[in-house]
Amino acid sequence: MVALITGASSGIGRDMARYLASKKIDLILVARRKERLEELKKELDVHVEIVVLDLLEEKNLYKLYEKYEDKKIDIFINNAGFGLFGDFVQTDLDRELEMIELNVVAYHILTKLFLKKFVKNGGGYILNVCSSAGFLAGPKLATYYATKNYVLKLTMAIYEELRHEKSPVVISALCPGPVNTEFNKVAHGGFSVKGADSLYVAKYAIDKMFQKKLIIVPTFSMKLGLFFSRFLPWKMLLKITYGIQYRKKK
């Protein structure tokens, strides 16, 4: 098998590469940081191809797909993305638009392109790295939460279309809570609760993807929180979420 992972130079993407390699799955690793990708490649005991691309540029999304359009790919993992802390009235608009380009537009385009390839070829796995934020609205992380809502709901809709058509293609959404990655550094904030271990989340996600699970929530505490959130009115949820985000430190 061959897996293609975007945002593979750090965090969950890097640990997914490590876990897939331990299962003897060959890899195509995509990210902007060549040095990080080369370091990762050296430690993996499978065939690894690295692709240095900035997925913020839309033309690069098509370039990536065209490079592998006629080649064997069994797993596509949409992982590249970032967040931005702060009040919506104060956060930088250009940075938010970049977030939408990477977290939404890139996910949308690549999901569609690889989905069509997998449907045509009669099988494949797509794993969209979303977030528990996809179930909520997020004061002080407003744009980030909105992008994850988009990707989660898109993934769910595609799942049902595939199920209705009895397609062998599998699509899943990984929805973790806080994870110990570089997210805080990029977003200029910090978690107010302890983050989950990135490698644990990566392993859990891959295992559940192979089990054809639609929504993958790795930790019990987040499963519990999402379950009880169903019974709370939106205004109360907003107050709770605001309180959690407010405690984040710059």
Description:
There is one protein chain. With 250 residues, the protein is an alpha/beta fold. The protein has one domain (2-246): NAD(P)-binding Rossmann-like Domain (Rossmann fold), CATH 3.40.50. 50% of the residues lie in helices and 14% in strands. It is built from 9 helices and 7 strands. Strands 3-2-1-4-5-6-7 form a 7-stranded parallel beta sheet, with helices on both faces. Helix 2 links the parallel strand 2 and strand 3. It is globular and about 50 Å long. It starts with a strand and ends with a helix.
What is the rounded Rg? 18 Å
Indicate the CATH topology.
Answer: Rossmann fold
Strand-residue fraction?
5-15%
Could you give the order of strands across the largest sheet? 3-2-1-4-5-6-7
Mean pLDDT across every amino acid position: 88
CATH superfamily grouping: NAD(P)-binding Rossmann-like Domain
- Helix and strand content put the structural class at alpha/beta
Secondary structure: helix percent = 40-55%
Terminus-to-terminus distance = 42 Å
Described by the principal axes of the CA atoms, the overall outline is globular
CATH class: Alpha Beta
- How many domains is the backbone divided into? 1
Largest sheet: 7 strands, parallel
What's the number of extended β-strand segments?
7
Are there runs of 5+ residues with pLDDT below 50, and where? Answer: none
Q: What is the CATH architecture term?
A: 3-Layer(aba) Sandwich
- Element order: H for helix, E for strand: EHEHEHEHEHEHHEHH
Tally of contiguous helical segments: 9
